[in-house]
């Protein structure tokens, strides 16, 4: 796998339409395929923390494009999509938070707030249908620290949009203005 294959093109990220609409624009760097898929799987399932830098750099480039295009305006708080605590422990940390921190590093007006948690006993969504993913995540995300101002939800993969939708709902009910969801990949 080559970091060059993760390079963000001048026209990325692209607006996508997940099956479940989270109510805000969802932008993705590309399909969950090829080098992007290999990098995400290796980071999450094989402990390849060395991939946080190229994935974080790709996310950073996407955010820089969105800021340059005027799609997003600082100040912004990047809120990583929640990860199951057991998965984060097994992986040696939360990869989405790691990518968000690398992406925001030295970008003026951007901060990272890991403000969302999955409640206990939330199932892993791999292999679940859209309806099952939505039922699995409904009411299972909680806010663990307040976030005010403009927020961008950051995720590694948007599959059905269930996690993004529930995360946006929780953030919006707690006074955050969610501007968009930005994902490294979409299925």
Automatic annotation (TrEMBL):
SUPFAM superfamilies cross-referenced by the UniProt entry: PRTase-like
Enzyme class: transferase
Alphabetical keyword list: Glycosyltransferase, Transferase
The EC number(s) this enzyme carries: 2.4.2.10
InterPro entries on file: ComF/GntX_DNA_util-trans, PRTase-like, PRTase_dom
One MF term in the entry's GO annotations: orotate phosphoribosyltransferase activity
Record keyword Glycosyltransferase present: yes
Family the entry assigns: Belongs to the ComF/GntX family.
Name of the protein in question: Orotate phosphoribosyltransferase
Species: Mycolicibacterium chlorophenolicum
Species lineage: Bacteria, Bacillati, Actinomycetota, Actinomycetes, Mycobacteriales
């Amino acid at each position: 796998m080559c970091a060059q294959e993760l390079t963000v093109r001048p026209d990325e990220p692209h607006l996508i339409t997940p099956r479940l609409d989270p109510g805000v624009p969802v932008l993705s760097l590309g399909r969950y395929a090829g080098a992007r898929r290999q990098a995400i799987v290796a980071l999450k399932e094989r402990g390849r923390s060395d991939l946080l830098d190229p994935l974080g750099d790709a996310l950073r480039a996407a955010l820089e494009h969105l800021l340059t295009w005027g799609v997003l305006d600082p100040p912004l708080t990047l809120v990583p999509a929640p990860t199951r605590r057991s998965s984060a422990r097994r992986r040696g940390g939360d990869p989405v938070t790691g990518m968000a921190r690398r992406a925001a590093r030295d970008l003026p007006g951007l901060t990272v707030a890991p403000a969302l948690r999955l409640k206990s006993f939330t199932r892993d969504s791999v292999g679940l249908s859209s309806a099952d993913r939505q039922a699995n995540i409904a009411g299972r995300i909680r806010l663990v620290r307040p976030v005010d101002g403009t927020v961008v939800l950051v995720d590694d993969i948007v599959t059905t949009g269930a996690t993004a939708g529930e995360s946006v709902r929780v953030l919006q009910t707690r006074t955050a203005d969610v501007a968009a969801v930005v994902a490294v990949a979409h299925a």
